[in-house]
Design goal:
heterodimer; A: about 280 residues; alpha/beta; 8-stranded mixed beta sheet; two-stranded antiparallel sheet; 12 helices; about 40% helix; B: about 375 residues; 5-stranded mixed beta sheet; 14 helices; globular
Chain lengths: ~280, ~375
């Protein structure tokens, strides 16, 4: 893959009047944004036919920084808004930028139902195990024992595996990487953007300020090393025993299938309705 | 355009059905909802009709998602509606606030039932007046319409879409279980008999760059639709004229919120409609809205037969509220009675409008039954 300079990507796609971003030093959201923009650029997609939607939180501020149509909505509800946009104008391609709390806690119900419907959307999910914007509270993805301001003695609940949840709910494409899996990340976003139906690329992303600081990983490099320790590639994980996988996070491409998307299903439904009413053969 | 119901003649239909047909004639092509008594028939009718007119009807996972979906649809260019009842309406409040803040034209029908909580699902009430006006947080304004007949449910639905589009704002159509399930003769007009309004679109690039500005001086910015190359950013955060978040600048917040409220306040004469009967020589006035208007009207007629100089003010719009008009009325009459199916919500507004110029008395009834005319008369004649 030929990689353009990041300046070229920045100049082409970012809103200069909105910079600088609100992101903290060491945050991984910028990297994920770059992967996404590189994927769009590489595919040669029309900037005017893409709408970015988001909920609330750090990652949800991304649509404000990119020069596309964008809807920065309420906490957790981005995919419900996206449903209205996509069904009204199926020509629009929708990218939802979401956080782990946004997608899996307050937005958990919208998330699983958007997947069940196979809503045509590409979700780019930033999983940093914490609520960064509100100051480092625990999230539904926080691994057991890790600390957050609302679990100062270590998380006592079980975490969600968002990617597996999406696979089970019926997504067409699900992949998970860390932000350090640069090429895999870009390739997965490219794949996701080209598919019909619900596609998800989850990124384990460093949050040194909100999350790392409270868990003895105050810098991005420390979080990088930790991600290297806790992640296991899918191919390797297949040969590991469940007890060996305890506390590990599997990364890779989990599913790639072609179930019909919601738009196509609804268009067929319209045809069926008209036929049943005798409006057309 | 072919319609899945007869047009240009009368039909004998329920209030909920009338709302669905009116929405389609008003140009609604996106409906998202979640079933709830007594509003479900609106959804069922939309589910039947929408695919036939190439529109969308989708059952969302909850009411929160329903409003979210219609806001998304509106930004993608559709006239969009949802319908619910009390408990669902409570869930919608978050995104109603979002629609106000982002100036998104949408229509929300709240078929009132008895509350709070699950309350009386099948019985009528008027307990959501305050929630309709003030349900979402923060300083805001929106439009609330209140029909009293099935024909009005039809007519006001069309008006709700027109007002939403004209002023780029959510409009609440506040009906109740009684109107929802009652069958009445309704004239369904031909499409060409109906005046429909569509939102102002940006006339040029310059206007499109100010999706939250005031290029025409009327407080209502043209709305750049997604996918037309304007690259508009829409956020529920306090934003400037360009749509850029500006959350800690007091003057930006003040300018935005005051404009959003002012665009409705300065157009009160266009938005507010009411009807009167016998107010010219009235000593006592009855002020009512929605289903209770019908008992109130009968009561006034019967009172006049008995020689009581009674008059009637029927409010079709409950927000914005015409406080000045009520004050003028209070200056002319001795007493104002407010019969309503709650513990006194319209009463608060009327009393504030009367401004001490006349005594205002609440005739409250709760439990699910509409006031009988006699119940109103007895209170008036003592």
């Amino acid at each position: 893959m030929y990689l353009k300079s990041s300046y070229e990507i920045r100049d082409k796609y970012l809103r200069k009047d909105m910079l600088p971003t609100i992101f903290c030093p060491g945050c991984g959201i910028g990297s994920v944004l770059q992967f996404t923009l590189r994927a769009i650029d590489d595919l040669g997609l029309n900037q005017d036919e893409i709408v970015w939607v988001s909920g609330i939180g750090c990652s949800s501020r991304v649509p404000g920084f990119v020069n596309f149509d964008g809807l920065h909505t309420t906490h957790g509800r981005a995919l419900a808004f996206a449903t209205g946009i996509k069904l009204t104008n199926p020509d629009l391609r929708i990218i939802a930028f979401m956080g782990d709390g946004d997608a899996a806690a307050i937005g958990g119900n919208h998330f699983i139902h958007a997947i069940r419907r196979n809503l045509d959307v590409t979700v780019i999910l930033i999983n940093n195990f914490t609520y960064g914007m509100t100051g480092g509270q625990v999230a539904p993805t926080t691994l057991k024992g890790l600390k957050g301001t609302t679990a100062p003695y270590g998380q006592f609940e079980n975490p969600f595996d968002i990617a597996q949840l999406a696979v089970a709910a019926g997504a067409n494409y699900v992949a998970r990487w860390t932000v350090f899996n640069y090429l895999q990340g870009i390739n997965s976003v490219k794949k996701a953007l080209q598919k019909e139906g619900f596609t998800l690329v989850e990124f384990l992303s460093p949050c040194p300020i909100g999350f790392g600081r409270r868990n003895r990983m105050k810098t991005s490099p420390e979080l990088i090393r930790w991600y290297q320790e806790i992640t296991v590639p899918l191919a390797k994980a297949k040969n590991m025993k469940p007890e060996e996988l305890e506390g590990k996070i599997v990364i890779g491409e989990f599913v790639d299938r072609d179930r019909p998307g919601l738009v196509r299903e609804y268009q067929e439904y319209i045809k069926r309705a008209k036929k049943m009413m005798g409006w057309e053969g | 355009m072919r319609y899945p119901f007869v047009v240009g003649r009368s039909d004998f239909i329920q209030g909920d059905e009338a709302i669905a047909r009116a929405a389609i004639l008003a140009g609604c092509r996106f409906y998202a909802g979640y079933p709830i008594t007594p509003a479900s028939e609106i959804f069922e009718a939309m589910a039947l009709y929408m695919p036939l007119v190439d529109g969308v009807s989708i059952q969302m996972e909850d009411e929160i998602a329903s409003v979210a979906a219609i806001i998304g649809a509106s930004w993608a260019g559709a006239k969009a509606m949802t319908a619910t009842s009390g408990p669902g309406f409570s869930l919608m409040q978050e995104n109603i606030g979002y629609a106000i803040m982002t100036e998104t034209p949408i229509v929300i029908v709240n078929v009132q039932r008895g509350g709070p909580s699950t309350g009386q699902p099948t019985l009528a009430a008027q307990g959501d007046i305050m929630q309709a006006i003030w349900g979402t947080h923060g300083d805001h304004s929106l439009i609330v319409l209140s029909p009293s007949t099935v024909q009005e449910a039809f007519d006001f639905t069309i008006r709700a879409f027109n007002l939403a589009e004209k002023y780029r704002t959510p409009v609440i159509l506040l009906t109740d279980a009684e109107i929802a399930h009652m069958r009445e003769r309704v004239y369904i007009p031909n499409p060409e008999e109906i005046e429909t309004v569509s939102r102002k679109l940006p006339a040029n690039e310059e206007e499109a760059r100010l999706p939250f500005g005031d290029p025409h001086g009327d407080g209502v910015p043209p709305m750049p639709i997604f996918g037309r190359g304007y690259r508009t950013y829409v956020t529920g955060l306090t934003h400037d004229e360009h749509g850029h978040p500006k959350t800690v600048e007091p003057e930006v917040h003040e300018r935005l919120i005051r404009r959003i409220i002012d665009k409705l306040e300065r157009n009160k004469a266009d938005i507010i409609t009411y009807e009167t009967f016998g107010l010219e020589d009235a000593e006592v006035a009855i002020v009512a809205t929605g289903i209770v208007s019908r008992s109130a009207m009968s009561a006034v007629k019967m009172l006049r037969e008995r020689g009581v100089r009674a008059g009637f003010l029927k409010l079709n719009t409950i927000w914005p509220f015409d406080f000045e008009m009520v004050e003028k009325l209070a200056e002319r009459v001795r007493k104002i009675y407010v019969p309503e199916m709650n513990m006194g919500q319209l009463y608060h507004l009327v009393r504030e409008g009367a401004n001490g110029k006349a005594e205002v008395e609440l005739i409250s009834k709760i439990g699910g039954e509409v006031h009988t005319p006699m119940e109103i008369i007895e209170r008036v004649v003592g």
